[in-house]
Amino acid sequence: MRTPRGRGLVFGAVVLVGGALAGTARAEEGVEKAVSVAVSFGAEQNDTVRAAGGGVPGGDGTMTGLTAIASGGPIALGLTGELSSSVDGIANRTFGGLAGVRLPITPRLRVLALGEAGWRKFSDAPNFIFEDTVTPSDLSLPYVGGRVGITMLVMKHLDLGFMAFARQDLGEDTMVVHKDGWLGGDATDTAYRVGGFATGAALQIGIRFDTTRPFNDPARRIPIPKT
Question: Domain limits at 131?
C-alpha cells in the first residue's frame, strides 16, 4: 500500500523530471504556433476506489485517454479526458484542463511539462450479465496533478510520444455496490471509499500541426536595403 510519503516522492519525481527536460530546450527554437490531438494507452496504479473496510485497492490496471493541446511560443494549454479501469461496477473517469510549456529539443522533438486540474467522476458502470446497482449513481471530486511527456513527429504530421502523470483527488466520499443474489443467494451491499491518488505512464499517438522556425532563421530577418 502506498504511503503519503511514497506518493509525495512519486509526484516530486514527475515534477523534477519535467523541469530537467524542459530546461534543455533552447528558446531560439521555440514553436510559434502548434495544435495537437492524441490518444493515449497505458497503465496506472490507482487507489481512488477501495473497499471501505480496508484492503488492497482494486483500481490498478489500464487507462485510455484523449488529449488536445494548443501552444503559442512555449506556453501550452489543453484539455484531457481519460477512462480508468472500473472496480466492482464503479466506473472511473477524469476530465480536466492543462497548462504549462511545450518546448523544442530538435525540429521534430518536443518536451512537455504540464499542470493539470479537473474532476474525477465515479459512476455506475454498465452491466452485461448481472445487474449491480451503485449508490449514488454519479459522484465527482476535484483533482490536481501534473504530467511530463515527450513527442516526436515521425512523418509530416504523425506524432508519437510517451507521458508520465500523477493525480491527487481533493477529498473522499462513499459509494455502495448492491448485488442481487445469484440462483437464490443472498443479496450483498459493499461500501467503497472513492477519492485518492493515481500515477501511471502511457504511450501516445496523434497528429500535430505546427509552424517551427528558429528566431535566427534567415527568413525571419528584416531585409536591409543595399546602398
Answer: 4-220
